[in-house]
Design goal:
The chain has about 650 residues and is α/β, with parallel strands linked by helices. Among the domains are: about 200 residues, Rossmann fold, CATH 3.40.50; about 70 residues, Luciferase, Domain 3 (Luciferase, domain 3); about 180 residues, 2-Layer Sandwich (GMP Synthetase, Chain A, domain 3). About 40% of the residues lie in helices and about 20% in strands. The protein is built from 22 helices and 28 strands. Strands 4-3-5-6-7 form a 5-stranded parallel beta sheet, with helices on both faces. A 5-stranded mixed beta sheet has the order 12-13-14-15-16. A 5-stranded mixed beta sheet has the order 24-25-26-28-27, with helices on both faces. The chain is globular, with a radius of gyration of 26 Å.
Length: about 650
């Protein structure tokens, strides 16, 4: 069905939007899931029925207005429906990271006062049962996937099928109940609670209202002309605010279809099958894709390698201008069209990018070379700047006004200011309500006028675009007075496909130094082509040939830094390749892959001291957590290398 869109103010909650979408788009697909190799689809009318039954089932099980519902699992239609079902009842959904260990889940469950949980499978059920005695308010666990659950006989562990059956009975006994219940909510009610990554302490529960999410989602959809005809692949954690905007809020606002992959291992193939028009990925995903393309091209025939190299070089010269609608000569357009037929089109099809109308990246800086690579072959990749406390959108890039080194201009309705110390402040329609049960942190982050302190340092360029330098608290100075921005340096290192993670040091030191994690797949492929045998990450990371490879990357970063007057003095003098990958299970990264600097500094203090003591080798022993939960240790003699520090005149020669 079709008709005029109602004003958002009159349809101000997701349950109300659900009813409206069922009326307007009843037969259009709302959500898909790939299960056992087959795509299953539900239209908006189907989804309304499923959510109504789920809400009624929760009601019959004792879920009350004001209760919190924990949601744990991969991206599944039923888990998205659970969010709307809880909201229809006046409850608060609390999505949690599905790969979190039981202790991490315990904190969120206890702090959020979750009394119900809907989980995907046995693994998540077991983690909740492990900590249930420490979470006194948690009284019901509902599981979606019944595999392995036959012998779970606890009365409070129930299947989703049984909940839905209870819901159908409740609806039969109470006709019109769901529609009436949805009308009780208003835009200022809390819609969801999302926990921050907790890089410097315990995660905080960010309370976002319906107004926050719906108005922000609507503004973003209008910015990029999203409609019910768009499609998105939902593969990022449901506990992350980005997924709640791209895969939930904007779907409800625009009416477009969300597709859930079969598993995290099938995302690439599922992306190709679905061919979404709207896509979000952190920079690391785009970097990994380019790395895979480069590796595969090395295996291609010589003629394909020549064609690829020629047309990609040509695309870099004219592709971005064609994408942005800028003047390009007729001859160049013809040659670009040939490249589209021979190289760009087949490559985009192989990646699942053929139908991309819009792609966003955020979270970290993306390498200009990577950014230009995708835009040059017609993929409209743009950057945005956001946070949980902003309901994502703070800055966005407009079509035709895209720069690789900025995050764009303020999003619709958002005000920005730069404080005297360089910190970025914002306020806008997505500004969070408060941190749950943490008034002190709320006051420290948001002032009485609604300005939120992002903790990021940045500045506006001449065109009014925002450039983010680093976390404000992390910006320091070397002993010679040079500004030291570790994240800025780390991002430059991670632009190289051989480097997957980096941690820079230098504040109140004589020079900058760095830890580096190599990318096992990219460096492994490089090593195999050179006949270098290795037994695993540690063995590969310690090889002199690999140190030579990474030294070249560090030297290029130094040459780049040498051209920046403010940062030329913070070039990397010494570095080492860590003997193990930094890991969220070891507490070194957050679940969103952000480095916990304090943890790394405490755990590897002897290596930091070695970087500044002049030694060339440092023996270490580190505790690790394996995928199956077992603990172990890794011993290694970590080498330390000197890098070339250049002045601005030498930089061009090094490049």
């Amino acid at each position: 069905m079709s008709g005029e869109k109602p004003a958002i103010g009159s349809v101000d909650t997701f349950p109300k939007l659900l009813l409206e979408n069922a009326r307007r788009y009843g037969e259009r697909p709302s959500i898909r899931e790939k299960d056992l190799g087959i795509w299953q689809a539900w239209n908006w009318s189907d989804v309304k029925g499923e959510i109504a039954e789920m809400a009624a089932g929760l009601k019959s099980y004792g879920f009350e207005r004001g209760d919190s519902l924990a949601i744990v699992g991969d991206n599944r239609p039923q888990l998205y429906w659970a969010m709307t079902a809880a909201q229809a009842l006046g409850g608060t959904p609390v999505p949690m990271y599905q790969d979190a260990v039981a202790d991490e889940m315990q904190y969120v469950l206890e702090h959020a006062e979750a009394c119900f949980a809907i989980v995907e499978d046995q693994e998540q059920t077991d983690k909740l049962l492990e900590v249930m005695d420490k979470c006194p308010k948690l009284k019901e666990i509902v599981f979606k996937d019944s595999r392995g659950m036959r012998h779970y006989d606890q009365s409070y562990v129930r299947s989703l099928d049984s909940l839905m059956e209870a819901g159908r009975k409740y609806l039969a006994d109470n006709p019109g109940w769901f529609e009436a219940e949805t009308q009780k909510g208003v835009g200022t009610d809390i819609a969801i609670m999302l926990y921050t990554s907790g890089t410097t302490g315990r995660p905080k529960g960010v309370m976002l209202s319906f107004d926050n999410l719906i108005i922000t989602a609507k503004n973003g959809a209008e910015w990029d002309d999203l409609t019910e005809k768009d499609e998105v692949l939902a593969y990022l954690p449901m506990a992350w605010v980005g997924d709640n905007i791209f895969s939930y809020s904007q779907s409800y606002v625009s009416g477009f279809c969300v597709s859930c992959p079969e598993s995290s291992d099938t995302v690439t193939s599922d992306l190709k099958e679905i061919g979404p028009t709207y896509f979000f990925a952190p920079p690391r995903v785009f970097e990994n894709i380019l790395t895979q393309v480069s590796i595969r091209m090395e295996d291609a025939s010589w003629i394909n390698r020549k064609l690829y190299a020629y047309f990609m070089d040509f695309a870099l010269s004219v592709g971005p201008d064609i994408l942005d609608g800028k003047p390009v000569s007729f001859g160049d357009r013809i040659l670009y069209a040939i490249g589209e037929f021979l190289v760009y089109g087949p490559l985009k099809n192989e990646l699942g990018f053929s139908r991309f109308r819009l792609a966003y990246t955020a979270g970290e800086a993306i390498g200009p070379d990577i950014f230009d690579f995708f835009r040059s072959m017609g993929v409209n990749v743009k950057q945005l700047y956001g946070s949980t406390e902003a309901s994502v959108f703070i800055c966005m890039q407009k079509n035709g006004d895209v720069k690789p080194d900025t995050v764009g201009v303020p999003a619709t309705g958002v005000e920005l200011r730069i404080a005297d110390d360089g910190e970025v402040h914002f306020r806008g329609p997505g500004t969070f309500v408060a941190y749950f049960k943490n008034d002190e942190a709320t006051r420290e982050t948001k002032d009485d006028e609604g300005w939120v302190m992002t903790g990021d340092a940045g500045f506006f360029d001449a065109d009014g675009h925002l450039k983010i330098i680093d976390r404000a608290k992390d910006v320091g100075k070397l002993n010679n007075g040079t500004m030291f921005a570790p994240k800025y340096i780390e991002n430059k290192l991670k632009f190289f496909p051989f480097i997957t993670e980096a941690v820079a040091f230098g504040n109140e030191r004589d020079y900058a130094a760095a830890f580096i994690n190599i990318d096992l797949e990219a460096v492994g492929n490089w090593a195999e082509r050179r006949g270098l045998a290795y037994s695993g990450y540690t063995d590969l990371a310690m090889r002199s040939e690999v140190y030579d490879l990474i030294t070249d990357c560090v030297n290029k970063v130094n040459a780049d830094l040498a051209d920046d007057d403010a940062l030329s003095g913070s070039q990397i003098s010494r570095f080492l390749i860590l003997h193990k990958l930094l890991d969220a299970d070891d507490g070194e990264l957050t679940r969103t892959r952000k480095v916990r600097r304090n943890t790394v500094a405490d755990r590897y203090g002897e290596l930091i001291d070695a970087l500044y003591s002049g030694v060339d080798v440092c023996p270490v022993e580190a505790a690790v957590t394996f995928e199956d939960g077992r603990k172990g240790t890794i011993k290694a003699d970590v080498k330390i290398r000197e890098a070339i520090v250049v002045n601005s005149q030498q930089a061009q020669a090094v490049e």
